[in-house]
Amino acid sequence: MITVTELTKRYARHTAVDRISFEVLKGQIVGFLGPNGAGKTTTMRILTCFLPPTSGAATVAGFDVLQQPMEVKKRIGYLPETPPLYPEMRTAEYLSFVGSLKGLSGAALHTRVEYVCERCGIADVKNKLLGKLSKGYRQRVGLAQAIIHNPEVLILDEPTSGLDPKQINETRELIRSLAGDHTIILSTHILPEVEQTCEQVVIINKGKLVATDSVNNLQNRARGGGSLLIEVASRQGELDSAQVQTRLESVPGVSGALFKTKRKNRLTFEVQSRKNGLIRGDLARAVVEAGWDLNELRSAAMSLEEVFLQLTGDSTAAPQSAEADAVATATGAES
Amino acid sequence: MRNVWIIFRKELRSYFVSPVAYLLLAMFAVIFGFFFWNILGFMVNRGIESMMHGQMFPMNVNEEVLRPLLSNIGVIGLFLIPMITMRLFAEEKRTGTIELLATSPISDVQVILGKWLAAVALYGGMLLLGAINFLWIFKYSQPDWKPLAIGYLGLLLQAGALLAVGTFISTLTKNQIIAGAVTFAVCLLLWVLEWVSGFETATWARVVSYMSVITHFESFAKGLLDLKDAIFYVTLIFLGLFLTSRSMESLRWRS
After folding, report:
1. Which residues in chain A are closer than 8 Å to B99, comparing Cβ atoms?
2. How many Cα atoms occupy the beta-carbon half-sphere of B216 within 13 Å?
3. Contact B135, B31 (CB under 8 A)
4. Which residues of A touch B248 (CB under 8 A)?
5. Which of B83, B89, B100, B118 has its CA nearest to residue B6?
6. B interface toward A at CB cutoff 8 Å?
């Protein structure tokens, strides 16, 4: 549905988007993930024909954004970062204005306005001035204007930014419910959002493509080969870390135990196993039978957050930021 | 055409949901009325004077009232035009709604035409409101209506040209006040360029003076439809709208 090849956008002083390529299939929800200033908005603006690319190509529903912008625009619904609302208009009036801009008219326009009001939960503010709406409602009206002409592709730039947690959940719910009929690209810098809403994720950082994968694969990648974190404690006296380590390594299936931290009489180890997590019972028994307490036993999976930092960190040359530090700990935890 | 109409309707509506349109209409009506009253009073005085001298000069309503009045109304337009055009694009840029227009299946030219025509329509409405004054003239005398119609056409063309310039200036900034102030300065300059001919007769001065919007209005005020002057205004309209479309195009490359 959307193909982006070697897309580049260069400004006088910097390159906002640097040779990005990815593809979105029909009906997918794709999360466009990256820190602020990564080039998400620029890419989206190119896809919506608001900005022309410096080089490279992008096609939406088979139409090139440079060659046939009108065809692309007809098929795209776009919600910019700030919903493009006219404060002096009323909700229904605004929606029919946008609808007619997108080529709807007469009874069809009327039905669509009714429909999107219902769908986006804004029927109760239909006759209110847009300037007087709360942030949550403004966002929903923004979403409503994006789907008014039932476009094949929806492009949503940070659709949940600035909303309160309840509104965030409602908006995500709404976006998910739209997935069946539309191909959706949404940008965000919030990871859980991607985990919750998207099937596919495209990660970019500093204008460069870092990874493109399904959310499941990324999470698997995060599960770092079945390493476990184990915390052992003792109620009588100090624990000898070397002793505990030997004991843990003696468990069948364990390929190595790495001492990590010590807090009073509690020791943490990271255990690498060959059997991918099936050794938890054996580990627990080994600890308890040695007369120690087992405080915690969990898989040392990185959160998507850490994967993200790792991925975006790898692509940056200078590891001197706070972000790079976080990467260092994240990779340290994995090894 | 349909798209132009959609934008036109939206713009005109937003003039009238805010106090802008009413304020402009009211200001125009008051000043128009004052000018009319003044010029009429002046003419009546002259009439009485000539009667007291016992000799009747031939007097002509078209010449004595309508012609100076039409020229003066152009000046009111000069002050009000920046207020009409300043928000056209500056406001869309400030609120980000320009992104909606630019990503909708509608061309820049359609957006520009819709907006400019709405501005012209508002000015046309102001002129119509002012025309109420003429009802009195037609009630108490028999002026020729054709020069008046041509004068009105001239006013509309003149305003159309300045509105096109204002529309262009509005695309250059996000700030309405800046757009309004610059438009006012440019309009005023286009107005007074004619003064150059007062002290200089070289070719350059004649060219500069020719650029003035006021020199081309004189024939319209007299009730003469001079093609050369009409073409001047139409050219200025095209130039303004062309620059607007270039400027909108450049927004895409710069933003």
Report:
1. 45, 50, 78, 80, 84
2. 28
3. no
4. none
5. B118
6. 2-3, 6, 10, 14, 17-18, 95-107, 252-253, 255
A84's tokens:
């493009």
Q: Residue B197 half-sphere exposure, CB side, CA atoms within 13 Å?
A: 14
Alpha-carbon distance of B93 to B87, in angstroms, equals 10
Residue B171's nearest CA partner among B76, B221, B242 is B242
β-bridge partners, A78: A155
List domains and CATH numbers for chain A. Answer: 2-219 (3.40.50.300), 224-299 (3.30.70.3190), 304-334 (no CATH)
pLDDT mean by block of 10 residues, chain A; 335 residues: 89 86 89 85 91 90 90 93 92 94 92 92 92 90 92 91 82 84 87 82 86 77 67 80 84 81 82 70 85 82 67 48 40 38
Residue-wise pLDDT tens digits, B127-146: 999 888 888 888 888 878 88
Handedness of CA A93, A95, A98, A102 (dihedral sign): negative
Residue B4 Cα, gap to closest chain A Cα (Å): 10
In total, the C-beta contacts within 8 angstroms joining chain A to chain B are 63
> Which residue's entry shows tokens 């090849």?
A5
Q: How far is the C-alpha of A224 from the C-alpha of B198, rounded, in Å?
A: 87
| Plot region of A59 (φ>0 → left; ψ -120 to 50 → alpha; else → beta) | beta
Q: Tell me, what's the ipTM?
A: 0.87
Q: ∠A96-A101-A104 over CA atoms, to 5°?
A: 65
Q: Are A301 and A195 in contact (CB under 8 A)?
A: no
Q: Name, in order, each residue with C-beta under 8 angstroms of A17's C-beta and a sequence gap of 6 or more.
A: A7, A8, A9, A39, A42, A43, A46, A53, A204, A207
Q: In whole angstroms, what is the distance from residue A114 CA to residue A109 CA?
A: 9
Contact criterion met (CB < 8 Å) for B97 and A76: no
> Are B95 and A50 within 8 A, CB to CB?
no
Q: Which residues of B touch A84 (CB under 8 A)?
A: 95-100
Instruction: Return residues 192-211 of A near B (CB < 8 Å).
Output: none
User: Which run of H or of E encompasses A30?
Assistant: strand A29-33
- Give the chain A residue nearest B95 (alpha carbons): A84
